[in-house]
Design brief:
alpha/beta; D-Maltodextrin-Binding Protein, domain 2; 2 domains; six-stranded mixed β-sheet; four-stranded mixed β-sheet; 18 helices; 12 strands; Carbohydrate ABC transporter substrate-binding protein, CUT1 family
């Protein structure tokens, strides 16, 4: 689905299923007088009463250094309610949340980075609470209908969207490019020609990292998804997600080989780090850092990577690092953009839990989060977000990229596939691929894991 200029304040419309308009149970109050009475930004939270002394345990994949802006954005919630947020970030969250659901050791709230994981939790564990009316009403007001669909399972709405990101970016050093006379490529062919040009100077054009704890491999799935959108188009991408075509379809193989022409090329990678196989063991947070030392020139990674540059790094078009749009094969057919986001699932309906859900689904939180992220790397599909609060150039670039009339946005494919594939075999087999396994065996193995 192409996005148009109707995209306002980083709000997005995506292809997806429709959600139910029915909210869950009405909000509960702890009683007493809310600490937020009469305070700006607290208007929607006073209904929950005095929550002083209560704690909301949040479990998420968002870890340091990206976690600090999350924590800072909760200060108003504490001011308004008296409750505090107990933050638990883990790179193993996607796997461990299922284990914890089965053992009964659940947090109050989890930020789920895949709609497929939400589906698995709802259908296989029955632990996720349907979203309360306050949250459903907020999502109806501030988010696009399709975003609500991503947070729904079998027509019931469970999880409000949180943040959004653009994955179709290539990070680079504007100074390094200017000093060498390199131009930002506008097509895939130009990207490959630039890679050859950089390699000819004795510099590895690319650096990458795919290690992410139990989620190791996901950066490689993003590479394939971006390539498929550029070689086969959005319709094929949609068919692939739904398994209307098999995972080992020739079109998927073509896209993976296109990625391999970069990532499995010893002349191209892994600048400042090691050989091709080192990609599998390099933490994704570290993958692009050799750009700062001039040891590599480009790093394909999402907008949220902005938070991983060392403190003091200038992220701007004329700064130490910035990003450009990963070019497509044929610009006349539109600009494919891959992206993702998180969804807020709750496992109980205690007043403090519902209050925090309500806060996170509001325009108030979206603007608090924007102001708490001066280093960049965060945008939201919340239509109440004031673009003036996006102080970072990379966040503004994300909004501009999404608002481009030629943009064709698709949600991260692995996030929409069944968990057995999207957050399991796809990740693992891509690691096997980057460490030597061929394309055919990789895709055949993933195909054989698709649930019947």
């Amino acid at each position: 689905m192409a996005l148009t200029a109707a995209f306002v304040s980083a709000g997005m419309v995506l292809a997806g299923c429709g959600g139910s308009d029915d909210g869950g149970s009405d909000s509960k109050s702890a009683g007493g007088t809310s600490p937020g009475e009469g305070k700006a930004g607290c208007e929607q939270l006073t209904q929950f009463g005095d929550l002083t002394g209560k704690k909301v345990h949040v479990y998420t994949t968002i870890v340091a250094p990206e976690d600090q802006s999350q924590k800072d954005s909760y200060k108003l919630f504490t001011t308004c309610t008296g409750a505090t947020v107990e933050y638990e970030g883990s790179k193993e969250m996607e796997a461990q949340i299922l284990v914890r659901a089965q053992s009964g050791n659940l947090p109050d709230i989890a930020y789920l980075p895949q709609p497929g994981l939400l589906n698995t939790l709802v259908t296989q564990t029955s632990t996720v609470k349907e979203a309360p009316k306050t949250v459903s009403d907020n999502v109806d007001k501030w988010w696009g209908e399709d975003w609500k669909g991503y947070g729904s399972v079998d027509g019931k709405f469970y999880a409000a969207p949180l943040g959004a990101n653009v994955k179709s970016f290539v990070w680079y050093s504007p100074k390094m490019f200017a000093d060498n006379g390199w131009k930002v490529p506008q097509t895939w062919d130009e990207l490959m020609a630039l890679s050859d040009q950089i390699a000819a100077k004795g510099i590895k054009p690319w650096c990458a990292g795919a290690e992410s704890g139990e989620a190791t491999g996901w950066p490689l799935t993003d590479w394939l998804e971006d390539a498929l959108l550029r070689t086969a188009g959005a319709d094929t991408y949609d068919q692939w997600i739904k398994h209307d075509i098999p995972f080992n379809d020739p079109k998927i193989a073509e896209a993976l080989d296109k990625v391999g022409a970069i990532l499995k090329n010893d002349k191209y990678v892994n600048g400042g780090i090691g050989d091709v196989k080192s990609i599998a063991t390099t933490a994704f947070q570290q993958g692009g850092l050799p750009i700062l030392d001039g040891k590599c020139a480009m790093h394909r990674q999402a907008s949220f990577y902005a938070a991983n540059w060392p403190k003091g790094t200038t992220v701007a078009e004329d700064g130490q690092v910035f990003a450009f749009y990963l070019p497509t094969v044929d610009p006349s057919k539109g600009k494919p953009v891959e992206g993702g986001g998180e969804f807020v699932a709750a496992f109980n309906d205690k007043p403090e839990t519902v209050a925090f859900q309500t806060y996170l689904s509001s325009d108030v939180w979206a603007n608090e989060k924007a102001k708490a992220t001066p280093g960049g790397g965060w945008v939201s599909a919340n239509k109440g977000l004031d673009p003036n609060n996006l102080v970072s150039p990379i966040d503004k670039l994300s909004a501009t990229t999404l608002a481009d009339p030629e943009a064709v946005f698709r949600f991260d494919a692995s996030d929409l596939m069944p968990a057995e594939v999207g957050t399991n075999s796809f990740w693992k087999q891509m690691v096997a691929w980057i460490t030597g396994q061929d394309t055919k065996k990789t895709l055949d193995n993933i195909e054989s894991s698709w649930p019947s």
